[in-house]
Automatic annotation (TrEMBL):
GO terms for molecular function: ATP binding; protein kinase activity. Transmembrane segments: none annotated. Residues 98-330 form the Protein kinase domain. SUPFAM superfamilies: Protein kinase-like (PK-like) (SSF56112). Signal peptide: none annotated. This is Protein kinase domain-containing protein. It comes from the Eukaryota. It comes from Gymnopilus dilepis. InterPro entries: Kinase-like_dom_sf, Prot_kinase_dom.
């Protein structure tokens, strides 16, 4: 897996190639600031999209061709792969169920309905895209996603991803978190490259396919359950709260057409691996801290998870587990 320091040496050479469109000023600006304001939504969406497009030459220099924007709409299309696509890919990369490219589109990720028409661009945003994430194809034809996780100020997400992908953490069999292929730095921003593991969507891209496909056997259901209970045991042992367990923040190592959840064999325990994604709301506490003594006051979006508000302060590790319980119950 890539080392953040080793990625710095070449990025300076690419800075002049990416000056035609300015990047967001900070990580906080690389986002949709107000989904209820059509003008702000349109402005932020297009700014983030242009920022990614302007970074194309930099990522190409690292061996990643970014997905292409369409003239209209928010979906992205896979670039044409010049090299032969490998018939078999190894973990952590996800194979295509049909063994070939079938409309490898990448759409919106948040599932928030908006139907706003982007000013001056003709983009109808049916769903808001997760604008900090962009898909790409590497030089071997393997599909990945790239996410911006920090600027010149260290972020909790970067700290946690670096820990989770350390040699020691990866040696723990309970570490069912999405693997980071490499860390890349451009200017002030830090990006992580991860394998794409999700549905191949004809309409919309979503994370969260780990819970969607049908289960063929009780063993397959137990395999999923065991995997996610294990990863939370691992995280909490290392004093990490995830803080955002939702189906769209889970994945399995397979690429299949959206809606084709009836395909047999997607969940074979001998092959299938599950992964926990998105550590944007996560926190890591000192190892010597007692789990019982940690209290927080931040909003966990209790209403969305159908969890009664515990009052403040509350123990985030207990709420993490309640969130997992809610998904298995439903």
């Amino acid at each position: 897996m890539g080392d953040l320091q080793s990625s710095n040496c070449d990025s300076g050479r690419m800075i002049e190639a990416v000056t035609s469109v300015s990047l967001p000023k900070s990580l906080e600006n690389w986002d949709i600031t107000d989904i209820d304001d059509p003008e702000a939504l349109s402005r932020d969406f297009l700014m983030c999209r242009e920022a990614w497009n302007s970074l194309g030459p930099f990522f190409a220099s690292k061996g990643y061709n970014l997905y292409k924007t369409r003239p209209k709409g928010s979906n992205l299309d896979s670039p044409i792969v010049k090299e032969p696509v490998p018939e078999k890919v190894e973990y952590p990369y996800a194979p295509l169920v049909f063994g070939k490219e079938q409309n490898m589109s990448f759409g919106s990720g948040s599932g928030v309905q908006s139907n706003y028409l982007c000013a001056g661009a003709g983009h109808l945003i049916s769903y808001l895209q997760a604008v900090r994430v962009w898909p790409a194809v590497d030089i071997h034809g393997r599909h990945v996603v790239i996410k911006v996780v920090a600027d010149d100020r260290p972020s909790h997400e970067l700290e946690i991803l670096e820990f989770l992908n350390s040699k020691q953490a990866r040696s723990d069999p309970r570490n069912h978190t999405i693997p980071v292929i490499e860390f890349l730095r451009y200017d002030k921003f830090v990006f992580v490259v991860m394998p794409r593991q999700d549905a191949v969507s004809y309409r919309i891209y979503r994370w969260g396919q780990a819970f969607w496909p049908d289960f063929g056997t009780v063993q397959e259901l137990l395999h999923l359950t065991h995997s996610f209970l294990e990863v939370f045991d691992f995280l909490h042992e290392n004093r990490i709260i995830h803080g955002d367990f939702l189906e769209q923040n889970t994945a399995m190592n397979v690429l299949y057409p959206d809606g084709h959840w009836y395909i047999k064999g997607l969940r074979k325990p001998s092959y299938t691996r599950y992964a926990l994604l998105d550590f944007g709301f996560s926190l890591k506490y000192p190892q010597e801290k007692s789990l019982e003594d940690i209290q927080v006051t931040r909003d966990y979006n209790f209403l969305r998870r159908s969890i009664p508000h515990p009052g403040t302060p509350y123990n985030p590790f207990k709420v993490d587990i309640i969130g997992v319980h809610q998904y298995f119950v439903h």
